[in-house]
Structures are given as structure tokens and as C-alpha cells.
Design brief:
The chain is built from five helices and three strands, in the order ααααβββα. By secondary structure, the protein is mostly helical. Strands 1-2-3 form a three-stranded antiparallel sheet.
Length: 149
């Protein structure tokens, strides 16, 4: 290859910076309507691959709490009283008082989500609503103790 121009150098630098976090998404166009992984065979992340990135040993992206039982939920209910924002949200949602002075004591990011109606209280558990899903809201202290066990 001849001397690369500055656009290619920019791409090279940005790819090196984002290695491991980069995802390629193929969007179909007028001619190519199928999603064919950019017409390339995917390379396995093994030492034989020159772009190999060693993975962390205990890379954890999520935990399924479906089969844990009621102990986690009981601990979550108790831990809402320990964390300030969770406790305030718990009190606000019990009373259904949207314009209460309690909401002014929430952190700015939590208050914005509360004003947008993103939190729900069902069976004593605080849930955070995204577009199409409800997520358990578990305080950080409980998450830390859960991982330590």
C-alpha cells in the first residue's frame, strides 16, 4: 500500500482505541437486501488470529435472578431503606404524590427519571422501566454483598 492518507490514519487510530468495544452492524441497501455479516467469514477470537484480544476470566454481563428465591427479594425490600434515593422513591411511589417535596431531595438524574414516570413499585420491589422492559432496581450495597457471597 502506498503512503496512507489522513482519513485512513484516522480510521486506524480509532480502531486501535476502540479494540474490543467495536461492533459492526450491516444495514441492507438497495442492492444487497440480506444481512450477510459483510460477506466475510467471522474469525474466532483465538491466539491464531492476529487481532486476538485475550478475554477476562470472569467476564460477567448479567445474572438471572429467576431461580434465586425469595431471599433476594426480601433483602432488596430491606435495602431500599438504606440507600437514600431508593428510600425516597419508595416513599413517593407508596403515596402516589408526584408533586411532593420529597422528589426535590432526589439526585438530579434520579429526579429526571422519576418525573418521566420511569419507576414503578410492585409488591414492594422497585422497578425501572425502559422502553419495553421492567428492570429490578437493586441498591449497590446489595449488589456488592451478592457478589461477595
Amino acid at each position: 500500500m502506498k503512503t496512507p492518507n489522513r482519513n485512513i490514519l484516522r480510521w486506524k487510530i480509532s480502531i486501535k482505541e476502540d479494540r474490543g468495544n467495536l461492533t459492526i452492524i450491516h444495514k441492507y441497501g438497495n442492492i444487497n437486501k440480506n444481512f450477510d455479516c459483510l460477506s466475510r467469514w467471522a474469525l474466532a477470537n483465538t491466539p491464531k488470529n492476529t487481532a486476538w484480544v485475550p478475554q477476562e476470566e470472569n467476564h460477567l454481563e448479567g445474572i438471572c435472578v429467576k431461580d434465586i428465591g425469595t431471599e433476594l427479594f426480601n433483602q432488596a425490600k430491606e435495602s431500599f431503606m438504606m440507600e437514600n434515593n431508593c428510600h425516597i422513591l419508595f416513599q413517593l411511589l407508596i403515596k402516589y404524590s408526584k408533586y411532593s417535596s420529597l422528589s426535590s431531595r432526589l439526585y438530579k438524574s434520579w429526579k429526571k427519571l422519576y418525573d418521566g414516570g420511569r419507576f414503578h413499585l410492585l409488591d414492594g420491589i422497585l422497578y425501572h422501566r425502559t422502553k419495553h422492559k421492567l428492570w429490578y432496581s437493586i441498591p449497590y450495597q446489595l449488589i456488592r454483598s451478592f457478589f461477595e457471597e
